[in-house]
Write a structure and sequence with these properties.
Blueprint lengths: L6 H5 L5 H18 L12 H10 L15
GO cellular component, one term: DNA-directed RNA polymerase complex
EC number: 2.7.7.6
Protein name: DNA-directed RNA polymerase subunit omega
Length: 71
């Protein structure tokens, strides 16, 4: 099973794997709760996949000053 989008593509958008996972998990919970996403179309069937696609499409971003810091 190949996961898309790839971690290499995602890390070109967000440098820290920890930040990437945290952002995707939070966004996936929001998508699950509201059933609203920021993409016109998506390939993923899961909320986590849609969140990752949003990151790749630069619909979700992280302030570089806070990247890698825990809330």
């Amino acid at each position: 099973m190949i996961l898309e989008p790839s971690i290499d593509k995602l890390q070109s958008k967000i440098n820290s794997k920890y930040t990437l996972v945290t952002l995707a998990a939070r966004r996936a919970r929001q998508i699950q709760d509201t059933n609203v996403h920021q993409l016109e179309s998506h390939d993923s069937a899961t909320c986590v996949g849609i969140a990752l696609e949003e990151i790749l499409a630069e619909k979700l971003t992280v302030d570089p000053a806070s990247e890698g810091q825990e809330d």
